[in-house]
Amino acid sequence: MDHVYKNLKVEINNDIFLKDPESTDLGKRIIASSIDLIDDIGFEHFTFRKLGVAIGSNESSIYRYFENKHKLLIYLTSWYWSWIEYQFILQTVAISNPVDKLVQAITILTREVVQDMNYAHIDEIKLSNIVIEEYSKSYLTKEVDQENKDGYFAIYKRLVLRLRDMIAAANPNYAFPASLSSTIIEGSLHQHFLKNHFTALTDCNQQITPTDYFINLVQIINKNS
Amino acid sequence: MDHVYKNLKVEINNDIFLKDPESTDLGKRIIASSIDLIDDIGFEHFTFRKLGVAIGSNESSIYRYFENKHKLLIYLTSWYWSWIEYQFILQTVAISNPVDKLVQAITILTREVVQDMNYAHIDEIKLSNIVIEEYSKSYLTKEVDQENKDGYFAIYKRLVLRLRDMIAAANPNYAFPASLSSTIIEGSLHQHFLKNHFTALTDCNQQITPTDYFINLVQIINKNS
DNA sequence: CAAAAATAATAGTGTTACTATCAAATGATA
DNA sequence: TATCATTTGATAGTAACACTATTATTTTTG
């Protein structure tokens, strides 16, 4: 499995970047430091000027990789979803029982992230925090329809559809598999956020995880049709 | 009921504004036009300069009502949640059966909004679109903990807790009433958004509504414990 | 070693997000 | 009706942001 793992080349739509940041050392430093910096100060306070200072490089050099910080956010979150999708596929493919398969899928999508040593320049824990706190901003824009057409959200959408198919396979009678899938994936980010900032609005805490909540939900639905 | 309705004075935390916009004609024009303008161009493109032009007034005058556009967004969305909360209370109070009560509550929280003639300067339909497309941005910030402490999200939180209590009343054995409540309220906004921009990721459309989806979900949970 | 490519440095533009100051209009009071 | 206070409007100014353009320097590659 480790072998296969290392073969994952995260594939991201070419028009998200001007120059592939994976192709150079500076590019990788841009990725690594932007994760640190966005996690630290938040996306609104994050600027290419500050990132330049952080990596000891020039603002203008960063602009040769990404048109603007919005596209960098799309890049980072696409990387994240691609990384999750890889685990999703790999860790469900061997399960034949559709209910077990679905439970495993939900576990992967809702659990707390741990460091992945296969990607030296990416801090997956910080990246997952960025996804929790910033992902919505990547699509809650006036440009969403054009960017969707241009494939900016393709990986995320594919993942939602994969989960939808598993929900439908586990329970062919259920009428809302797509809505449930999007609710779980988006809702998981939301529950993680609430756990960190609005503790009264969630039952999740140190003991109870979003995974517990969503698996219970899906099991109730499965029992009931 | 209409009588009671008109008695609703939407009550919003004083430190969200510098000067109550309800107290003057200019203030009401700021609210009315900001709803139009944010709905039209989106929150990122919205500026106080543009709003000043739109109402034929000066940028500096707007700054006397709101410190910045973030606080204006908090004000608008607080108004929205307060307006929803009022309907929520009024239209559930007479229902004694806890399951019926819950179903009605979910209907109010997830249905498409219609114009309310009681508030001349507020376009509730546009405002609900703003909530769908921009609300997350009001709390997905680095300042969220301080602003939460300052009561900026009090109305929204109260509403989530009201729904949580109804979920618990309808089904005392269910282990995740708070998470389900926050999932429904946030998830409803998300399903409305998907219906408009990512049709493949939801089952909701012209025929099937987010209300159908969430009521079905809650009914399955109720049957099953 | 030369040519090409990548990066860095510097400067400049228009916009944003304000703050400050002062003038004009409006309204309340004596 | 005079005057005083409050509100609004106009103008100007600042620092930061979001870039673009140009040129110099360094690094890579053939």
Structure description:
- The structure is a homodimer of 225-residue chains.
- Chain A has 225 residues and is mainly α.
- The first copy, chain A, contains eleven helices and no strands.
- Chain A has a single domain (2-223), classed as Tetracycline Repressor, domain 2, CATH 1.10.357.
- The first copy, chain A, has helices at residues 2-6, 25-41, 48-54, 59-62, 69-90, 98-110, 124-139, 144-149, 154-170, 177-197, 210-223.
- In chain A, helix 2 (25-41) packs across helix 3 (48-54) and helix 5 (69-90) packs antiparallel against helix 6.
- Chain A is globular.
- Chains A and B meet through helix 7, helix 8, helix 9, helix 10 and helix 11 of A and helix 7, helix 8, helix 9, helix 10 and helix 11 of B.
- The first copy, chain A, binds a DNA duplex (30 and 30 nucleotides) through helix 4.
Biggest sheet overview of chain A: none
- Count interface residues per chain for the largest interface: A-B, 51 and 51 residues
> Tally the helices of chain A: what do you get?
11
Helical content band of chain A: 55-70%
The mean pLDDT of chain A is: 94
Oligomer: homodimer
Rg of Cα set of chain A = 18 Å
Task: Using the coordinates shown, work out and report the CATH topology of chain A.
Answer: Tetracycline Repressor, domain 2
- Termini separation of chain A: 36 Å
What general outline of chain A do the C-alpha atoms trace? globular
Looking at this structure, what is the CATH superfamily of chain A?
A: Tetracycline Repressor, domain 2
- Reading the helices and strands of chain A in chain order gives HHHHHHHHHHH
Domain count of chain A: 1
